Amino acid sequence: MKILVANLGSTSFKYRLFDLPSETQLARGGIDRIGQSASACFVEIGTAREESTLPVSDHAAAVKICLDALTHPKTGCLKSAAEVSAIGFKAVFAGKLSGVRIVDDALLAKMEELADIAPAHNPMYAKAMRQLRSAFPQIPLVAALETAFHDTIPEANRVYAIPYEWKDQYEVCRWGFHGASHRYLSTRIGQLLGRDDLRVVTCHLGGSNSLCAVKGGKSQANSLGMSPQTGLPHNNRVGDFDPFALPTLLRKTGKPLEQLLRELSSQGGLLGLSGLSQDVRDLEEAAAQGHARARLALDAFVTSIRQYLGGYFAVLGGADAVVFSGGIGENSRLIRREVCQQMEWAGIELDPARNESAKGEACLSAPTSRVQVWVIPTNEEIVVARQSVEALAAAGSR
Description:
By secondary structure, this protein is an alpha/beta fold.
């Protein structure tokens, strides 16, 4: 079964084509600058890579270009587009319509209704899905909601201390996100250690960030709350923030609420603290040269990670492993080192040499560490592919 997994940006379309159940990746590709006069396209099939530049009007046109490349009579890996059983999406938020779902009108309407919760994701996904349903009605679309993995979180770890009716009537609670990544990481560490009963804290650190407490493969808590703007500081999103600061900002700045919310979600996080960059690589270099606010941004980031890490040890009653992933988690030796320093009380002992030399999947902890520390590159796409197959099977059985 061939599953095309789509990763959408407002002006980009990236994809991977998998053959299941073997989970073989047949192709990958992407198109940037959609809607502009010159869009950059690439496709990799096997060891061959082709690049081109051409105008691409919208995401439906991008998928058409993708399918044309995959079915090219000489260089493609498919005989026809009919071989694609579904297009799977790592969709973000649809409130109570969580889980893995065949895309329909009800789901799209819910995503659009809740667009202000995930403004960087929901509008473009809903728009693109509508385009694709119209352009390719023969190909089922599957939405694997990021909240799905967190459906197992106990209610006490999900609720805010608000009038309970707000949760029931308005769906205000800690939904949690990055579900595909945390699902993959907790599954993969179980495979590596040969256990299905692990207590794991998975750390997805990249452009957006979250920690997840996982017990026996089931999510118990996630640092992201009602929206992807919360929890840890992100590249340019605020993270945890007291809403009662907003009246002060409204009075002092004279800015409308909508503008303040935009600034919190685009000028906050590491960018806002440092005043320099949202990229940890830039901040590490600047901090090493004495840039005080770059150092402050890194310190605040590490402190927040450590606070959630310690809290999740309490949620799990200890841990068997801590896993780092994402662009920062996989590549920043400094962040991993500073997060783990002076954590011997919790059973974490990082091996400095392993941390410095780690590439790909690697154990970073010292042999004497009670808690194993790993770096594992995440693979959200294969999770979406697996879930798409499950959704098609469930739909066929009804």
